[in-house]
């Protein structure tokens, strides 16, 4: 069967769903690959590099007419119209009823990459972890740029400067990447997460887990599916005290808190008012509305008291070569599971929890929503 890799239509998108390296892996699974001319341009992969890897370069209709189409972003209605009848679509998407209906009408087999379950076996396919990891890294770079000082303490002939203090809220995949990156630049890193098990991971990254005046409640661990749950009023008041105190002494705050993709409020405008002039907030939850009350998604603002709030939502697209490589590898790993004979023939096993979890439609039959998956 033939795999198509179209240009991502979205304005400003730099990512691509396959790279020359992942093309080679797709060929090893028995597929042929057609890449739309220019698809890798934003990520610095030339058509020649794809050809050298064994792909053919084609037109937009050729890429969309393939048996399997790989994408980064959800297709538009017009793009769905370009799919062949009964094609397989592998992409990030929000499976809304209107999208499901459009896919069903084309008898598409559609896989939603955000629905990869949080089980160990699925880690190598987990695009959310890929994106979060890169966002955490890139968020620190953006915070460091907006901050008017150096992260590492300096001892020079002209005197000394103190290291920056970085406070990270939420120590999931993005938060841990931010902790590692800020620490490697020499900052003193402090962090907090509502999941008590995050404390050990924060410590293992060499950062301080802040606890406030009491010991952390063992309450927010969630329902066993790998997601945090919302805080009770008492817990929220306690974490608010921690956040206010930590933000007031931080040079850069990175906030990464999410509960099932939604951004809880972690930093209020009063907390921002208590921050030092020149300090920075990078709101990595801006895409879900923001953790900070004053965040404007996709904008950088400076408050009256001189705090810069970075609300960019496209961190992964600002590191396009590596993001595309890791994202493309996530897709290869999913297709490995679905191509057991490595003969370029996709065989779907609905008894497999991963395959079941990602299937939105199969040959026109709706499989969404999937049954819940417990973390193993
Ligand atoms: P996430 O993106 O859903 O949330 C980010 C972090 O914010 C989480 O750690 C969460 O506990 C925290 N948070 C939520 N509300 C908060 C609040 N009010 N204040 C402070 N922190 C708050 O989570 P994630 O980064 O995707 O992952 C969370 C955990 O799941 C990690 O331990 C990760 O290793 C694990 N995980 C496992 C797999 C897998 O096994 N395949 C995949 C992804 C994640």
From TrEMBL:
Coiled coil listed as a keyword: no
Give start-end ranges for the coiled-coil region(s).
Answer: none
Subcellular localization is given as: Cell inner membrane
The residue ranges of the Alanine dehydrogenase/pyridine nucleotide transhydrogenase N-terminal domain are 4-135
List the range of the whole protein covered here.
Answer: 5 to 380 of 524
Q: Gene Ontology cellular component?
A: plasma membrane
Species = Nakamurella alba
Q: Has UniProt tagged this entry with the keyword Signal?
A: no
The EC class name is: translocase
Q: Which reaction does it catalyse?
A: NAD(+) + NADPH + H(+)(in) = NADH + NADP(+) + H(+)(out)
Q: What is its EC number?
A: 7.1.1.1
Q: Which UniProt keywords apply?
A: Cell inner membrane, Cell membrane, Membrane, NAD, NADP, Nucleotide-binding, Oxidoreductase, Translocase, Transmembrane, Transmembrane helix
Q: What does this protein do?
A: The transhydrogenation between NADH and NADP is coupled to respiration and ATP hydrolysis and functions as a proton pump across the membrane.
Instruction: Please name the GO terms of the biological process aspect recorded for this protein, alphabetically.
Output: NADPH regeneration
What family, per the record? Belongs to the AlaDH/PNT family.
Q: What is this entry's stated membrane topology? A: Multi-pass membrane protein
This protein's name: proton-translocating NAD(P)(+) transhydrogenase
Molecular function per GO: NADP binding; oxidoreductase activity; proton-translocating NAD(P)+ transhydrogenase activity
Alanine dehydrogenase/pyridine nucleotide transhydrogenase NAD(H)-binding domain residues: 144-311
